[in-house]
Amino acid sequence: LETGCLSIIVLGASGDLAKKKTFPALFNLYRQGFLQESEVHIFGYARTKISDDELRNRIRGYLVNDKTASLEHSESLSKFLQLIKYVSGSYDTDEGFQLLDKEISKHEVSKNSVEGSSRRLFYFALPPSVYPSVSRMIKKCCMNKSDLGGWTRIVVEKPFGKDLESAEHLSSQIGELFDEAQIYRIDHYLGKELVQNLLVLRFANRFFLPLWNRDNIDNVQIVFREDFGTEGRGGYFDEYGIIRDIIQNHLLQVLCLVAMEKPVSLKPEHIRDEKVKVLQSVLPIKDEEVVLGQYEGYRDDPTVPDNSNTPTFATVILRIHNERWEGVPFILKAGKALGSRKAEIRVQFKDVPGDIFKCKKQGRNEFVIRLQPSEAMYMKLTVKQPGLEMRTAQSELDLSYRQRYQGVTIPEAYERLILDTIRGDQQHFVRRDELKAAWEIFTPLLHRIDNGKMKPNSYQPGSRGPAEADELLSKAGYVQTHGY
Ligand code: BG6
């Protein structure tokens, strides 16, 4: 890591994202020695007028969990909280940001920072509507003052707009103020352990190299399920829906890593170049390859309109028009209020030609990467059932992280991504052209839904989602296998 004074400014410090994700991630980095007291200071900024201690008390409860409950950690917790200061101000006037700048500069002087080598990281835990004004204010009042060294970076969260046009507008507004190298667009799925493992799996294993194509793979599913509804976020969610909330970003990013060609090197630009090519090769989505759902009871939320058409579930098939993937459906599926919480990638292989065992009914080879919960990957394969008879059965080659890496703590996605931001590594962040290509894929479909031309089917909370989704899956060629 570079040295020098580091100021981390959490904008929207009293909001949900900051409390649940940003501050806990910062605390974990601090506990592991990545944020040094001698260098770092954390500032919370928001409109609410509260004291430093009030902010500390508000976030304290979110920092203590099973991992951090020990005495040793409670000491580091108090020390960590002392690093946090609070500044209140509005998001669109100079006053607050001038005050913030003064506080940051005071800290930089107190840490004897060499002039110019100070680093300023602004984390936007804010509603996107204020991104443009906050970016303007930072540019005007809070930039690292010298060009002798150091930097100013901003971290922005989705939703980056609502469709292609609004996203491009937002990108241009921010792009006029900051260089691409200063903008870190977070998609927290890119910080998940098994998502980060995808490139290694694909390009460091001889097994997969010859198999990973249309000749051998029948279909790919990328699935996200949650076993709870929109609970308390109905207002936000209803405006966006499951496609904007999960599929257009998290699942599409995973798709890129599953489908992309081998990058020239591991340089962030090389990797992102390949991801963009995948996105640009996706064909327009066909209505008949989409199933939408809305769970019963969703509209009972007082923040959701009675006639809401917003999908809380969607299955969408994407088709990649290139030499490797022509004809292979990529089935993206996401839903709230389903029977279980799970995110996984299922790569299903074609049947064995000239099968002499008649084992087709038992199912196909499938490679499953479970992102959460309990990270794992397993290969379903056909083996001889132990015993005197020559019978075949489905079994698994199984790598469960909990067993294989006992005692290893898997870092939280946000923790990793914030550390990447401090290190200046943009590999796991979304580049502007990538974002644009992602919106290009989904905007026509989203507009059809917004205009009421496509309606969600209703489904029972706690179920698998609408039955139509399973029908679509079988039509696309997916064969339900037994076992796991
Ligand atoms: C967020 C969505 O981006 O991801 C939420 O806005 C969703 O609706 C969450 O619950 C899921 O993240 P994870 O890491 O729990 O799978």
From TrEMBL:
Gene3D superfamilies: Dihydrodipicolinate Reductase, domain 2, NAD(P)-binding Rossmann-like Domain. InterPro entries: G6P_DH (IPR001282), G6P_DH_AS (IPR019796), G6P_DH_C (IPR022675), G6P_DH_NAD-bd (IPR022674), NAD(P)-bd_dom_sf (IPR036291). It is found in: Cytoplasm. Signal peptide: none annotated. Its EC number is 1.1.1.49. Its main location: cytoplasm. It holds the Pfam family G6PD_C. Catalyzes the rate-limiting step of the oxidative pentose-phosphate pathway, which represents a route for the dissimilation of carbohydrates besides glycolysis. HAMAP family: G6PD. Belongs to the glucose-6-phosphate dehydrogenase family. This is Glucose-6-phosphate 1-dehydrogenase. It comes from Cephalotus follicularis (Albany pitcher plant). The lineage of its organism: Eukaryota, Viridiplantae, Streptophyta, Embryophyta, Tracheophyta.
